[in-house]
Amino acid sequence: VAHTGRTVGRLGEGDWDGKVSEIKKKIKSILPGTSCDLLPDTSHLPPEHSDVVIVGGGLLGLSVAYWLKKLESRRGGIRVLVVERDHTYSQASTGLSVGGICQQFSLPENIQLSLFSASFLRNINEYLAVTNAPPLDLQFNPSGCLLLASEKDAAAMESNVKVQKQEGAKVCLMSPDQLRNKFPWINTEGVALASYGMENEGWFDPWCLLQGLRQKVESMGVFFCQGEVTRFVSSSQRMLTTDDEMVILKRIHEVHVKMDHSLEYQPVECAIVINAAGAWSAQIAALAGIGKGPPGTLQGTKLPVEPRKRYVYVWHCPQGPGLETPLVADTSGAYFRREGLGSNYLGGRSPTEEEEPDPTNLEVDHDFFQEKVWPHLALRVPAFETLKVQTAWAGYYDYNTFDQNGVVGPHPLVVNMYFATGFSGHGLQQAPGVGRAVAEMILQGSFQTIDLSSFLFNRFYLGEKTQENTTM
């Protein structure tokens, strides 16, 4: 990746600190008896030049950073800066997620992404080991995922499982009788068919993966900065399309990063920007002028990603299903899994369009559990009639309102902005494969291992949905 602007000498962070203290010493020796505050501490500031600026330091942003460094042709060849406004990740989807991994999709791309993730998670220390750091334990629990379908969704489930098997996923169909035999705690009323993932499915600790990725990319030389991207400086060029239509191509040259608790911003010259800002990625796209043109044109096509609030509840139930319990998704949309060994479970249910909660805060609606989740859980698992809710939290989905699938790869008009966003609840489990796909596109000009062309931005303008044939 070529630098924009002049190249600067590369100094490691430690080297730079050493240089600063040397200079301070020199100044002190010139001005005896005076204390030296002539050089303010700039270690918290981002560098003035970076080949790639990644907006968003969640799992998707970190995964892109990891694969860019892993696939670079020479060590230290690419300078990567990750800008994250919330270093505690208190509102990031990652730490608030249920951590499920499942290959039971209808789109081959989603199945392949989740199969690769399973292999990445199983071999995590081959990828993310850092010298002198203890090995990562993601607490990957391969108990499988169990999806239940009603009569009207049974045919869709059957055709989905056929695709899953073709792609190499180990999934089987179960009749209500087989279901009762294997999981005696389940009430099969209203269930016509079930699909059960026998390998590479279950759940893991997403917080551990986030910390492991962050530690790894820092060891690879990725620069981190806590701040907020407030502006892009770009140049424009008018072009005629093959249909003699005038379009304006833009290229971002500079990213303005506003530092925490400060009115200052730091300009960072760059060659490429990755929009991995999750639920807030549409605002970052709008800053670059995406969607600002006349309606119905490519220039006027917005990134259709918005924050949606989802609740996760934790309950205790000593009589509940045992240790072999998979992650269960009910016909009603309610879901649950075990949490640890002490008869605790966590789960919830995605609200309908009419039930969508206000996403401006992360307050939990406890009535939603009582009225919209618990009745479905108690019907499906009679033991849950006596459950006691212990705690709950809310987190954000980066919800793609167009087709609930990810947006990956470059923007057609803002030519050096790439997306890794909009996964609507499965970004966490697909982050390893998506990061690799974006890095391949940047470094080699096309997707290499999994073809994610159907996740490109152009589909929003063309009106071509890449939609899951869902059974829920």
UniProtKB/TrEMBL annotation:
Subunit structure, as described in the record: Associates with components of the mitochondrial respiratory chain complex I.
Name of the protein this chain belongs to: FAD-dependent oxidoreductase domain-containing protein 1
Entries under PANTHER family matching the protein: FAD-DEPENDENT OXIDOREDUCTASE DOMAIN-CONTAINING PROTEIN 1 (PTHR13847:SF287), SARCOSINE DEHYDROGENASE-RELATED (PTHR13847)
Keyword entries, A-Z: Electron transport, FAD, Flavoprotein, Membrane, Mitochondrion, Mitochondrion inner membrane, Oxidoreductase, Respiratory chain, Transmembrane, Transmembrane helix, Transport
The gene coding this protein: FOXRED1
Membrane-protein topology: Single-pass membrane protein
Keyword Flavoprotein belongs to the record: yes
Every FAD dependent oxidoreductase domain range: 51-441
Lineage: Eukaryota, Metazoa, Chordata, Craniata, Vertebrata
Cofactor(s) for this UniProt protein: FAD
Gene3D superfamilies xrefs: D-Amino Acid Oxidase, subunit A, domain 2, FAD/NAD(P)-binding domain
Major localization class: mitochondrion
Key word Cell division present: no
Entry function: Required for the assembly of the mitochondrial membrane respiratory chain NADH dehydrogenase (Complex I). Involved in mid-late stages of complex I assembly.
GO biological process, one term: mitochondrial respiratory chain complex I assembly
